[in-house]
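Summary for the lay section of the report: proteins are chains of building blocks that fold into shapes. Here we show the chain for Precorrin-6A synthase (Deacetylating) and then a coded description of the shape we predicted for it.
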Amino acid sequence: MLTLMRELYVIGIGAGDPGQVTMQAIEAMRRADTFFVIGKGETKRELVEVRAAILAEHVGPGYRVVEIPDPPRDRAPADYRGVVEDWHARRAELLADAFAAEDGVGAILVWGDPALYDSTLRMVERVRTRLTFDYQVIPGITSAQALAARHRVVLHGIGEPVHITTGRRLREDGLGPDPTVVMLDGDCSFTEIPADGVRIWWGAYLGMPDETLIAGPLGEVAADIRERRAALRAAKGWIMDIYLLRREGVGPRG
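The coded shape description reads as follows.
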């Protein structure tokens, strides 16, 4: 195995508000020599710019930024798991090539938290089959936490569970009995479940200047959310949103 970059930090930086960056994250960023950023193309340049602003505010001069183009993938595949596995493998190859060209301490800034619906840690483990280095994970504030804070609700009932899933799984499995946080939903899957007795708390661009919040009985606000989401996406070229669903009498109050 090659040995060049001796250490890597995988740093959660919160859901979009630069104020959500923790002191632990700042300390880790200040130890890094090189920051690796997987770019999402010009339509999502704002995500790179937020990372750049965080570095400019919290890290002194002398660091490098290495931007890596994100390989394309099919967004509506028949074999979802297979396509995502291939995408992760191609991402890991690009990261390995970038890591191998650097020395010192590296860092990857991860939107939200690296442990929740993010592929960075899986890719880093793939890279470690080719390169020798140690790494540490710094937790960040998740979009689920930010959503609950902005709507001033608790995600679960007293002593009860909360379910976290994706839009694809909501369409396939339906809404269960527990309050459900839905992430990675590009198709407004909340419109495909029975709305009677269900309430929704929705948020887009949480912590960012264009943050938008809507809440209410699902049957009353679903169309508004869908229209607002489409307008926001058309205006910016991309969208990041998340929502909480619960049946009346179950879970949070607010």
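Put simply, here is one thing we learned. The chain has a mean pLDDT of 90.
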